[in-house]
Design goal:
The complex is a heterodimer of chains A (322) and B (146).
Chain A (H helix, E strand, L loop, with lengths): L1 H12 L5 E6 L8 E5 L21 H5 L6 E5 L1 H12 L8 E6 L7 H6 L5 E7 L2 E6 L2 E6 H4 L2 H4 L11 E3 L15 H8 L2 H12 L7 H5 L25 H14 L9 H5 L7 H15 L26 H5 L1
Parallel strand pairs in A: 1-3, 3-4, 4-8
Antiparallel strand pairs in A: 1-2, 5-6, 6-7
Chain B lengths: L11 E6 L3 H10 L8 E6 L7 H9 L4 E6 L10 H18 L7 E5 L5 H18 L8 H4 L1
Parallel strand pairs in B: 1-2, 1-3, 3-4
Helix pairs in contact in B: 1-4
The chains are: A alpha/beta (322), B alpha/beta (146).
The structure holds iron/sulfur cluster (3 copies).
One iron/sulfur cluster (SF4) binds next to helix 3 and helix 6 of chain A.
Chain lengths: 322, 146
């Protein structure tokens, strides 16, 4: 981490960048937050650890409107989102100086809590384990079991766009990557009735806090349909099960073909709704119907919903498949 | 309260493109071909005008089935509109199915201005399908149904 801070200081003091976008220490050991640093003194609160899950790409939309360059730190998966935002003309490549930082996975405090570890004071990675200091004493758990869902299906540790890379000595690397469509397939194999119950259960937990939308780099419309007064469920809790579905189908559809599967939506949901299962259904269908496509892989290719071929499948395929 | 299927009068919304399908419906009418009165036609400039939200909204407001008709691929008045529709609706229908909504409640059909017979057959078939599926409860808003 010292390497990162040193480099940020250097670029700031040389005037090559006007500000730094990174993560700063939060109130607790596990909640660093996205932050702008405007001078070298402020960088003392800079941090980079296994809880810096926040994808900073989206903040570059605002930063692109400011004078001067912004130094932004991106993890491998964050660079997909940045590429996608370039493609959509939402960020200005010229206004960004991207330092790709290596990543050994992010941890989910919910998973740590679920393992019975509460009252956390500090967390340290020790080989393959997490050493957690709590108010009840020291606890350990396997780092692998505390990984965020998205990191267990990581797309790879390669940065898709950057100006320079900073290697950080990453103590632990999860090699055990599973297929990200496993759970989608499981759901597809259920009966329609079972799927309905599954989603009813999940979506009824939604409190319509809009966190998923606000954190999502693909949800970057200046005016969002969910803020419109013509949309019945604008800015309030759902009154019935239809509104839950409406919100989630529409949101997932709005990012279909653009969602990079960065996992921010599921990470920020206070209700623990597996939103990635909706996005990945679209991704899986797109791959199957229109050929493999990974949003954010590059900044030029046409998205699957803004292109077509003459031989595309007919919508009736949905009924024929099952 | 049990709803008797024989008494069930479905509400069916048909989005029809101005250039082909709406004219097809017209032709069905002038040729005195019949299709059930349960079908309410909404004219749209192109099948591509239909935002997935329109379909959900129709269900919310009490539709039991929604069908979207447009020009045959290749015949779009705006050249390529229906190709986008095709991708969009394929993904939407697949998502609805994934959420546990019955498959037959949505349908896309390409009907040209000359296909009055096809229009009437498709509508008859679709209404029958919705009859067999019964009332839409999974995608409805209770407030809109009273
Ligand atoms: S998905 Fe991969 S790159 Fe992204 S935070 Fe997780 S481990 Fe890091
Ligand atoms: S973050 Fe979760 S609870 Fe909040 S609106 Fe999204 S799905 Fe609902
Ligand atoms: S929908 Fe979720 S996974 Fe997809 S881009 Fe948005 S935040 Fe990332």
């Amino acid at each position: 981490m010292q390497k990162i801070i040193e480099r940020a200081k250097e670029l700031l003091s040389k005037g090559e960048v006007a500000r730094v976008l990174g993560w700063k220490k939060g109130d607790l050991a596990y909640n660093p937050e996205p932050a702008f640093f405007n001078c070298t003194d402020e960088l003392t609160s800079f941090t980079y650890n296994g809880f810096c899950g926040a994808n900073l790409s989206k903040y570059m939309i605002e930063a692109s409107k400011l004078d001067g360059k912004t130094l932004v730190f991106l993890k491998p998966c964050d660079t997909y989102s940045f590429n996608q935002l370039i493609k959509e003309h939402r960020v200005d490549r010229e206004k960004a100086y991207i330092i790709g930082v290596s990543c050994s996975g992010n941890y989910s405090v919910e998973k740590i809590n679920k393992a019975g570890i509460k009252g956390i004071e500090s967390i340290e990675i020790d080989g393959e384990n997490l050493k957690v200091q709590t108010i009840y004493g020291q606890k350990t758990m396997a780092a692998k079991d505390a990984l965020m869902e998205r990191c267990t299906v990581c797309k790879g540790k390669e940065h898709k766009i950057f100006d320079e890379l900073i290697e950080i000595n990453t103590a632990y690397q999860n090699e055990d990557v599973t297929s990200r469509f496993d759970m989608v397939e499981k759901l597809e194999a259920m009966t329609s009735e079972e799927r309905f119950i599954f989603w009813q259960n999940e979506l009824s937990k939604c409190i319509r806090c809009n966190a998923c939308r606000n954190a999502c780099p693909a949800c970057s419309c200046r005016k969002c349909v969910f803020d419109s007064n013509n949309f019945d469920s604008a800015q309030k809790a759902n009154v019935d099960s239809f509104e839950e579905k409406m919100f989630h189908i529409i949101r997932a559809f709005h990012v279909a073909g653009r969602c990079t599967d960065c996992g921010e939506c599921s990470r920020v949901c206070p209700q623990g709704i597996p939103l990635h299962l909706l996005n990945r259904k679209f991704i899986k269908d797109i791959n199957e119907f229109y050929g493999e496509f990974q949003a954010g892989e590059d900044a030029q290719s046409k998205g699957p919903l803004t292109s077509f071929t003459l031989e595309d499948v007919e919508p009736s395929i949905v009924g024929e498949r099952k | 309260m049990q709803i008797d299927n024989k008494e069930f009068k479905p509400n069916i919304v048909a989005f029809c493109c101005n250039w082909c399908s709406y004219a097809g419906a017209d032709l069905a009418g002038t040729s005195r071909l019949s299709y059930p009165a349960d079908v309410k036609i909404i004219k749209v400039p192109c099948s591509c005008r239909v935002n997935p939200m329109f379909i959900l909204r129709a269900f919310e407001k009490g539709a039991d089935g929604v069908i979207l008709c447009g020009c045959h691929p290749g015949d779009c008045h705006y050249s390529t509109g229906n190709y986008y529709t095709r991708r969009r609706m394929t993904l939407l229908f697949s998502m609805l199915n994934y959420l546990g909504i019955e498959n037959g409640r949505t349908r896309v059909e390409w009907v040209s201005a000359a296909e009055g017979v096809k229009f009437s057959t498709v509508m008859n078939e679709f209404v029958e399908k919705i009859h067999s599926l019964g009332e839409n409860v999974r995608l409805g808003d209770l407030r809109c149904k009273r």
